[in-house]
Design goal:
InterPro entries: Acrflvin-R (IPR001036), SecD (IPR005791), SecD/SecF_arch_bac (IPR022813), SecD/SecF_CS (IPR022646), SecD_1st (IPR048631), SecD_SecF_C (IPR048634), SecD_SecF_C_bact (IPR055344), SecDF_P1_head (IPR054384)
CATH topology of the largest domain: Multidrug efflux transporter AcrB transmembrane fold
Shape: elongated
Domain Protein export membrane protein SecD/SecF C-terminal: 352-521
Strand content: 15-25%
Transmembrane segments: 373-392, 399-417, 423-444, 465-490, 496-520
Subunit structure: Forms a complex with SecF. Part of the essential Sec protein translocation apparatus which comprises SecA, SecYEG and auxiliary proteins SecDF. Other proteins may also be involved.
Subcellular location: Cell membrane
CATH architecture of the largest domain: Up-down Bundle
CATH class of the largest domain: Mainly Alpha
Structural class: alpha+beta
């Protein structure tokens, strides 16, 4: 008995030491600073920026079908189907591609291309006027929307990480479809963050087919009153310091954000900030083919427009073929050049975003929340400890020691895992204290029943723990399941509450069953046989 008790006591001490290390780590800069470095505070305690974003996933579908329009034109030409027109004629149905003008002798060849594996994500039908319609399948569209949201989250996360924000929360927002929650503790300048995130909007290079025009009406008149379905009108300056103008651009981009392999800020020969970029191999080959065919010395010279945030930032002639590297110049400040190169290095958003909610939590409010939460936790713990001492006498000391060890284990766990403590998380800690006392009450009351039945102190303790164990497990399992549901379907602070509650309950099982039993066994070992138990 003595050897077994010593082994259990050594194990409890080892657990206590390990989790104390989890709270403070290797002390540096004082005990308070060491604890702050290990226990990270959430947005509501530290202050910072809270954003809710909406991803316009429909743009990703439109972009994907735009790409497939260009690809389908090339595939039909390779199959010998000459004269067919490929495009999207209905702006309200961006997921549908119409192929018209297929020569009767080439219908079979065209059908083979349209129904091939390259276009398996489309349903192919015949329209009433005899044209072929490719409509993206519902399942494929949903998969693309899901990938678009996931990619947006990862892109935003990577850019936020490069800003050096500690413990950011970037995840799907459960209150709406295609929404993202962004919480940045300690960030006091939400404008800079919004600029970084919002400017992740697609950067692309398009062929110029007309312009510049002074007004939209002038652009329409120059094109017979109708904008071709494969083109679009875009406003912009076209060069540094130029007034706003309108350009007619090819809808399908030659190069866009996902094609950039690397980008670095620099300066041009005039000392103006610019961005030097490198393209992926596939994009470089595609861009070389386009620029080689439209150089100033070719039979079809052309120019290209650089779009950022759906505005023309620069229009330049093609002097020579470009394969895998180039420069983007424009009316950039040095900070804008740095931010834009960061965006290109970390990838482009597959669709644009808009802000549904922007909220800033001040550090003073966070400090007040910490103070009030800590006061509530201490007051609650002291009240519980005093009650246990008064009501259960000597056994109350047992419960109070287990309760303090429970709190140490919980905080140590948060220190080891780098969990973020939020205000609801503090509420979870307080609730864990209550659950810990609840377990001790079940055990102590059962021990009292056994003593009233005439059993010895040792037998009463043994039976008390044995019979209360099933009830304790039942209450803890149901609460842990509830915490898991909160973690799976909650967001931000709700998850913080679920984490602290769930692990606090696991810690409570350890302290209420093992630690309390060891303390009782140590007390009984020192008492004379038949001596009364203070409970």
């Amino acid at each position: 008995m003595g050897k077994n008790l010593a082994g259990k006591s050594a194990f409890i001490v080892a657990v206590l030491v390990i989790f104390c290390f989890g709270i403070v780590g290797i002390p540096h800069g004082g005990l308070t600073q060491s604890i702050k470095d290990r226990i990270h505070l959430g947005l509501d305690l530290k202050g910072g920026t809270h954003l809710v974003l909406e991803v316009h996933v429909a743009e990703a579908i439109a972009s994907a079908t735009d790409r497939d329009v260009a690809r389908l034109e090339g595939d039909l030409q390779k199959a010998g189907v000459v004269g067919a027109t490929v495009g999207k004629t209905d702006p309200s149905r961006p997921q549908t591609i119409i192929v018209s003008g297929i020569p009767a002798a080439k219908l079979s060849d065209a059908r083979s291309v349209l129904q091939g594996n390259d276009y398996s994500t489309y349903d192919v039908t015949t329209t009433p006027d005899g044209n072929s319609a490719l409509t993206m399948k519902v399942g494929a569209a949903r998969d693309l929307e899901t990938r678009t949201l996931d990619t947006s989250i990862e892109t935003i996360r990577e850019r936020i990480d490069k800003l050096g924000v500690a413990e950011p929360v970037i995840q799907k927002y459960g209150l709406g479809e295609n929404q993202i929650l962004v919480e940045l503790p300690g960030v006091s300048d939400p404008g800079r963050v919004e600029e970084i995130i919002q400017s992740t909007a697609k950067l692309s290079i398009h062929a110029v087919t007309g312009g510049p025009y002074e007004t939209d009406q002038a652009a329409l008149q120059a094109n017979g009153g109708v904008i071709p379905p494969d083109s679009m009108l875009v406003h912009g300056s076209g060069s540094a310091g130029a007034p706003d103008q309108i350009w007619l651009l090819k809808r399908v981009s030659e190069v866009e954000g996902t094609d950039f392999r690397d980008a670095q800020p620099g300066q041009d020969q005039n000392g103006r900030p610019n961005i030097r970029f490198n393209l992926t191999t596939e994009a470089g080959d595609r861009f070389y083919k386009y620029t080689e065919a439209h150089t100033a010395s070719s039979a079809t010279p052309g120019s290209m427009a650089i779009l950022l945030d759906n505005k023309v930032r620069e229009v330049a002639g093609i002097q020579s073929a470009i394969r895998d590297s180039g420069e983007i110049t424009g009316a950039f400040t040095q900070q804008q050049a740095n931010d834009l190169s960061l965006m290109l290095r970390t990838g482009a958003l597959p669709a644009s975003i808009s802000y549904l909610e922007t909220r800033t939590v001040g550090p003073s409010l966070g400090a007040a929340s910490i103070h009030q939460g800590v006061v509530a936790a201490i007051a609650g713990m002291l009240a519980v400890m005093i009650f246990m001492l008064i009501y259960y006498k000597g056994a109350g000391i047992n419960a109070d020691l287990a309760l303090m060890l429970n709190l140490v284990i919980l905080l140590g766990f948060m220190g080891f895992t780098g969990s973020t403590l939020t205000l609801p998380g503090i509420a979870g800690v307080i609730l864990t204290i209550g659950m810990g006392v609840d377990s001790n009450v079940l055990i102590f009351e059962r021990i009292r029943e056994e003593l009233r039945a005439g059993k010895t102190a040792a037998a009463a303790v043994q039976q008390g723990f044995a019979h209360a164990w099933v009830t304790i497990i039942d209450t803890h399992v149901t609460t842990i399941v509830s915490a898991m549901i909160l973690f799976l379907f909650g967001s931000g602070p709700v998850r913080g509450f679920a984490v602290t509650l769930a692990f606090g309950l696991f810690a409570n099982l350890f302290t209420a069953v093992l630690v309390s039993r060891v303390i009782f066994d140590a007390i009984l070992q020192k008492k004379e046989r038949g001596a009364a138990l203070s409970i």
